[in-house]
Amino acid sequence: MAEEVILLDYWASPFGTRVRIALAEKGIKYEYKEENLDEKSKLLLEANPVYKQIPVLIHNGKVVCESTIILEYIDEVWKDKSPLLPCHPYERAQARFWADYIDKKIYSNSVKLLRSKGEEQETAKKDWIECFKALEGELGEKPYFGGQSLGIVDVGLVPFYLWFNTFETLANFSMGTECPKIVDWGKRCMDNDSVSKTLQDEHKIHEILVEYM
Amino acid sequence: MGDEVILLDFWPSMFGMRLRVALAEKGVNYEYKEEDLSNKSALLLKMNPVHKKIPVLIHNGKPVCESLIAVQYIDEVWKDKAPLLPSDPYQRAQARFWADYVDKKLYTLGSKVWQTKGEEQEASKKEFLDCLKLLEGELGDKPYFGGETFGFVDVSLITFYSWFYAYETFGNFSIEADCPKLIEWVKRCMEKESVSKSIPDPHKVYEFVLQLKKKFGIE
Question: What is the ipTM of this complex?
Fold first, then answer.
């Protein structure tokens, strides 16, 4: 059966990047449509009238919004390859918890860190590092949050790996010193084609982040 | 097999109520432990070190935190009775989307309704009602958000009903006037024992909010 998969996205979005990685993991062919966020397309506004945001997945004409929800959808539809969630309900709940933690904390703390100065920035830096230390604790000795292979938490977090250098320079710290296991994890993720071929050029991301400062 | 299920909760929490409803729907026996949020128990702090919040479901010693995650967990473990999420992936994505919408919007907007005055309150009321109207639109002519049966979105939203009287009284407005179909849906849900026995009397919630306002000096 012919599947039509369209992704409405913005090239630098970490949320859109998650969906691209998941689609690559599952080997799904799709049409990528770049959105101009200053002039959103009619298709986007009709597909996501509630939030008017990317990413939006359109599968055989049916719309799925919100990146973490899209990841679960992709995992459930294309279930025979590269499972993103474990089978056991308790482990699934833990994976969802940490995916939700990333959703609640990483982006908002990143924006604070980018935009603050002086003492406020020191606090933002501390909060941001604390989040990654908590994630590092959850990772433990596992190669990936998903265990032996990429899972929903890995896919949810890895787009932010490209942001590390910008923040290290901005706020004068080293992720290698603060969260060495997370840095190792990021490098390990890059060994996966689905990640390395999807993640953007770090310099281009840096330029975008600088615009947000 | 003996299942030990404990719920760490706080009686007026619309998030904790979701778990009470889900557990009741599934006919699961559990031990309810009331938390004093100004003096959180060692158990709560141990079971939810990341957020230190209720509700926490502890199943055979293992904690599950965040209410919508815990409701999904309950649905997956006790899967033979009263399924809360549909089986079709697209329907599941829609259910998750709307439950997430409730989470993102209703608590914050509702809080603004009782915590603010004047123009700020008027703006909050409008936004709050707009959210409920959107949800009413999503419900459409279905008896429940889940279709013919009570489902995930129903569980996520119905618990806010216990706070409606407080919102309406402090905000001086009527939810039913703007969202009559939603209130019909509320009444339909309240006919279910799993719901009516799990959520507190809205007047008690009102009294609780009144005390909060006094405590924090919010007029």
Answer: 0.96
